[in-house]
Every structure is written in C-alpha cells, then in structure tokens.
Structure of Biotin synthase:
Amino acid sequence: MNAATTASPASDTATANPTAINRFDALADQVLDGNPISREQALEILKTPDDEVLNLLSAGFRIRQKHFGKTVQLYFLMSAKSGLCPEDCHYCSQSKISEAPVPKHNILKRDDLMAAAKMAADRGAKTYCLVISARGPNEREMSAVEQIVPEIKQKYDLDICACLGLLSREQADRLKACGVDRVNHNLNTSEEHYADICTTHTYADRVGTLRNVRDAGMEMCSGGIIGMGEKHEDVVSMAFDLQELGVQSIPLNFLNAIEGTPLEGNKDLSPHDCLRALAMFRFVNPDRELRISGGREIHLRTLQPLGLYVANSLFVGDYLTTQGQAPEEDYQMIKDLGFEVTKSTGETPTC
C-alpha cells in the first residue's frame, strides 16, 4: 500500500478543509502574542463544525500548555448543608421550587467535615470545596466555617474554597481572616438570560458578591452552566464577564437536568457542544484555571479526555446531589493522556 492510500483521519480533515487548522492556529497565535480574541471570534468558536473540533482543541492545547503544561489539578466537593434553600434557581435540585428528592440537613458537624477533608487529601485534591445551600450564610454557618477552616488547613495540605451564597463585604473579610483561600460564586449564565433561570436574586447580586470577595483579598472562583436554553451569545457574554472580573478559577458545568426541577428534560448538549464551550473559555481566559465540572460524565461521555486538552482541572468524586465517576477512572484517564496530577498552581495569573 503506497503513501497516497494511507492518509490519517487528521490529514483527511485538513484536505477537506485546508483552512481549518490555520484558522485555529492563527487564533492561538493571537492569544499567545497577548492579543485577546473578540466576542465575534469567540462566537465563531462555538459554531465550529464537528469535524473541525479536533483542530480547535489542538490549537487550544497550545494555550493550555503555555500556562499549565500537562498538569491537572483535582478538587473535592463537600455538601456541608443540603436542601432547605429559599432561592428558585431553576437548574438546582435544592431550590424551593424543586420536587427532586435530595438530602436535607443543616451544616454538618466538625467530625463529618474533617472526615471529608481527609478524603480530599487522600484523593490527591488540591482544594477542598465547602458548600452550603442558602441565599447566604447565617451567623451560625459563618461561625462554623470560621472554626473548621483553620483546623482543616493545619492538619491537611489543602486550599479551602467556600461556596456560601451571597456575601457582604464584612462576611468576605471574615472568611479571609479565618484562612479561606477562595470563594466560589458562579455567574451561571449571561446577564441577559439570568431572569429566565432565577427570580429571587439578580445577576448584579452575584457580581456584587464576587467584587466583595476580590476586595477582601481572596481569589474568585466563578463559572457557569451551559445547556439551560441559552443562546451562543449568552455563553460568550459569560466568558467575557468572567475575564473582565479577573476570576482566577472557572468551573464550567453542563446541565444535569434533574427530574423534579423546572429544567428537567433539557438534554440538548452533545459532546462536541461541550468541547466547543471549553475551548472558547480557554481562548477567552488563556491563563485562568478552567475546570470540567458537573455533568461531564453525562454529556462528554467517552470524549471526557479530550476536554483536558483545554481544561486543566477536574472535580474528583461526587457533586452536590449527583454522583460523579469513580476517582480511579479519573486517575487512569489523566495517566493515559500523559498528564499528571499536581497541587502546584503553576504559573500564577496576574490580575
């Protein structure tokens, strides 16, 4: 068999569309040269044909590799308080309008939180994410966090990310003082689409919390969810808003349309949709930590490894009210890619 008959699938794609590789590599060159892409260019990334997605990921990997090499950081999520939330976020099984059967309990006792911290450390996680369901923390919950965080940090080599809902500046200052490293508060979608998924608080409320976190001297962790009926323009707007806020860590979730929530039945995402979104977020936020988050097992399925060519972190284990895949599968996936788990932040972004 001669060389003319043994072309690889990659070369077939390049022959079918010889400008595809050059187009994405030119975008990567633009970003690597320090020139941000435009909203129009980001929108074009989300419209990439399926047969060009591998070329897109290859170009995006060059950006990821510059800032994070082949490292992957692991995060461990702990639902410290479940259910009982007065908000009406349509995607959430813990909201007041959800009929999904979820555990309902107030903030867990010290021993439970410490046991989860040990599990996070044992699984090689860099960050322990302490999450409560609430509009915002009450005084009892703030005090519990202030007491447990120093103990966790003294005993385990873990960063602490607190996800406690809306925060005042005074509350943010208290979290900083007790040793919290970063606070998670997702924008979830664009400002334009926000009223379609929540009415009990506003997009501006969420942005205000992030600014309070930033002004208190903590890192901001904020991302969103795709698959909630938004338009491509909404996803692009969210990516740029996060960039403009200077968010250090971006978790990108893919809607798990839980039965009993208003968004049950929304299953419009394909694996390629998820990969396009991850790539777009990498091009818009080149030196930010990008995490493949909830719903990856459902929507990326067997293409999960490809997501790590642009993202550089994962949650290991379960999510708030849904199960993730076994940690051993994540370790094997990372190993098979030739990547390595690290607790180092690599090149520190400058905000």
